[in-house]
Amino acid sequence: MVSQENWRTDGVKVMRAATMDAAVQGQGGRATAFDFTGGMNTPTWVGRATLPPSLQTGPHTHGTQELTVYVLSGRGRIRWGERLEFAADILPGDFVYFPSLVPHEEINLDPALPLEFLVVRSDTERVVNKLDTVPVDTPEMMY
Predict the structure, then answer these.
(1) pTM here?
(2) Are the C-beta atoms of residues 33 and 19 closer than 8 Å to each other?
(3) What's the alpha-carbon Rg for the chain, to the nearest Å?
(4) CA proximity to 69, closest of 22, 122, 12, 114
(5) At 117, phi and psi to the nearest 5?
(6) How confident is the model over 72-99, as pLDDT tens digits?
(7) What is the spatial distance between Cα 105 and Cα 87, in angstroms, rounded to a whole number?
(8) Cα separations (Å) of 28 from 23, 50, 52, 128, 139?
């Protein structure tokens, strides 16, 4: 807990959009807004991710981390499963939760605009385990 004497410097923190925009541009599409340990001493990472037009991440996991994204802008698709056999299209305002160890990929369906996410991870480590998965041709659409 932050003591009252430190509220000025260690109380609420604001990450300005312009600062985040510059960080995302300079760091390959991902930037940290905040790293912190919550009240239960659980490390948490909050940041933003941008997927350029018509690109996809490729199959990967985030190890034992849990992950939630909130779609800020754009039009995308999430695929998941051992061979990415399940899929859901996502739009601004949608939340997506990724349990630990679930293979998945993000796809930007728009040829002109980026897909932007607010991201919350259950750890501050930047774990991305790329997979050599051969996806099914046509995933089952969910939701």
Answers:
(1) 0.79
(2) no
(3) 17
(4) 122
(5) -125, 145
(6) 999 999 999 999 999 999 999 999 999 8
(7) 9
(8) 9, 8, 10, 14, 28
